[in-house]
Amino acid sequence: MLRNFHRPWLWVAGWLALLALVAAGSLMPASDLPQVQLPGVDKIQHAAAHAVLASYAMMLFATRRAQGWAVVGLLAYGVGIEAAQATLTADRMAEWTDVLANAAGTAVGVALTRRRPALLMQRIDRWLAGAAGRGERPPSCPE
């Protein structure tokens, strides 16, 4: 299910930490967040967060089936976050346009992490496992 990593727990923990970070940012009081007055910035933030989550999932999971389930899970996660905003926060509300932005970001993340870019995390994992002790530089992003 996962790609071949020397430290799979590290990469799974990273994805779980990103999911927790997005949830925390989505559920904290709006008054605690920086106020940006540009129209549409909220939707860009939603799309960017889900693009990162989806890209990470494509790099984490090896099979199309696992990747597909990750995408389904991220879509459900986006809906769940909006439902949580509506029910668990006093000054946040659910918006269907946020769900659409989450889904669009997920699609962008999947599209950007096709084929070679999906192997970036494995390259970094290999470097961490061996090359760091030899003083080698980290791998560059694949083309």
- Compute the CA-based radius of gyration: 17 Å
Structural class comes to mainly alpha
End-to-end Cα distance, whole Å, is: 25 Å
The helix tally amounts to 5
Main pleated sheet: none
Give helix and strand order, one letter per element, not per position: HHHHH
Overall pLDDT score: 89
Beta-strand percentage range: under 5%
Please count the beta strands (DSSP E, at least 2 residues each): 0
Identify low-pLDDT runs: none
Helical content (DSSP H or I, runs of 4+): 55-70%
- Mass-distribution shape: elongated
Write the layout of secondary structure elements.
Blueprint: H1 8-27, H2 41-60, H3 64-88, H4 96-112, H5 120-129
Account of the 3D structure:
- With about 140 residues, the chain is mainly α.
- It has a domain at about 40-125.
- The chain is built from five helices and no strands.
- The chain has helices at about 10-25, 40-60, 65-90, 95-110, 120-130.
- Helix 1 (about 10-25) packs antiparallel against helix 2 (about 40-60).
What characteristics describe this protein?
143 residues, mainly alpha, 5 helices, 64% helix, 0% strand, elongated
Summarize the structure in short.
With 143 residues, the protein is an all-alpha fold. It has helices spanning 8-27, 41-60, 64-88, 96-112, 120-129.
